[in-house]
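Need a sequence for this fold. Nothing fancy.
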């Protein structure tokens, strides 16, 4: 399994292939289609990420020392954003997730091209994924 830094670099490389933000948004929508979808029964208010404009559900399971994330969103761009984060953080150890930086999001220019409410939602998503990691770090 690739480490977090390698996955982040892959994502930066992929986004650098596109010349403009319309193409990047389209790519994010495509990435959203590959999201490991959360089981319907977990689409509860307990799994909703607070602070997101759209609805985003995230679930974390702990298997063989790794945190496995599944998610879904009712908005296509948001689904792409959470897909990127899950690609980076899923199948990693709690410690790796807790210690990971998210500078790669600045490198691809994501924060600059999101509305303020989506940017806040992005921060909330990252915070929630790291909270799951903290919760599992004692196992």
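Here you go.
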């Amino acid at each position: 399994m690739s480490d977090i830094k390698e996955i982040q670099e892959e994502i930066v490389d992929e986004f650098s292939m596109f010349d403009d933000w319309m193409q990047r948004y389209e790519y994010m929508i495509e990435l959203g289609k590959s999201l490991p979808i959360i089981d319907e029964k977990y689409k509860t208010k307990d799994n909703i990420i607070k602070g997101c404009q759209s609805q985003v559900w995230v679930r974390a399971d702990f298997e063989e020392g790794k945190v496995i994330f599944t998610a879904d969103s009712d908005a296509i761009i948001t689904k792409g954003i959470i897909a990127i984060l899950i690609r980076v953080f899923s199948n990693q150890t709690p410690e790796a997730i807790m210690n990971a930086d998210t500078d790669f999001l600045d490198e691809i220019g994501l924060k600059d091209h999101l509305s303020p409410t989506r940017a806040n939602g992005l921060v909330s998503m990252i915070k929630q994924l790291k909270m799951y990691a903290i919760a599992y770090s004692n196992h």
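For context: The CA atoms of residues 49 and 127 lie 9 Å apart.
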